[in-house]
């Protein structure tokens, strides 16, 4: 996904001289092509992410289109005050991109685990939160973020994410997509864990259980109309995210359900528990540890459907 991001922002910046790229001391070789084609518009802000956000906010308020990019944990929790006051309070159209969201850096330990970014940033007024699922959607989401005109946070994977939607339609902020239809259950997914969600749907189909799969690449604002349709037509809803079950996508869905008085279906939540991961392993291992592998999701959904 990061390669898709680098390629797309280079292409967009060639066509729009207002686009500038700020990096928090990573991706220097990744952005060689950007620097060659857009000289003077790449800034390595060093290990000073909070300052990078303030610089980006100032550039945005001067009429430029800056994009700030670095590892998710360092561009969210470390910079919360700057995102709140410099970006959101001033409605500065800065695009903030966190790379390696969720468990992408699982093997590097809790300093690099990004499981609380959506929870803290969802509290900020005016901030749009995007979570594309694969490389093609990173491209369309970046275009939409730069055209949005307000502050945007986008969490993406690191590398090696499979292409799940080879030819996605234009990205619409606030709109979800139905990728698969089934009458027995509905799986709501956001971000890079969509691959596990689709695998869960396949595992359920092997048991004779048909599941609808809805991808929600916008976590804030949610697609309320689509959620309403899913809650009216399914008796079991599973919400899947590579994020803490506290404060993230599933919490947003629960808040929507409470406000909309949509209490019909049974709701299952698949995400990281309220605990640090003290074991070491790669992303696949960490997903299994947290119970968000496709087989684990399918097992729990099937159990919930038993009479």
Output the keywords.
five-stranded mixed sheet, globular, 12 strands, seven-stranded mixed sheet, 307 residues
In short:
The protein is an alpha/beta fold and 307 residues long. It has 12 helices and 12 strands. The model has no long low-confidence stretch (mean pLDDT 96).
What does this protein look like?
The protein has twelve helices and twelve strands. A seven-stranded mixed beta sheet has the order 2-1-3-4-6-5-10, with helices on both faces. It is 39% helix and 20% strand. Helix 1 crosses helix 7, helix 3 runs parallel beside helix 5 (80-88) and helix 8 (194-206) crosses helix 12 (294-305). The chain is of the alpha/beta class and 307 residues long. The model has no long low-confidence stretch (mean pLDDT 96).
- Kindly state the percentage of residues in helix: 25-40%
SSE pattern, N- to C-terminal:
HEHEHEHHEHEHEEEHEEHEHEHH
- Mean pLDDT across the residues is 96
**General shape:** globular
Strand content: 15-25%
What can be said about the biggest beta sheet? 7 strands, mixed
Regions with pLDDT < 50 over 5+ consecutive residues? none
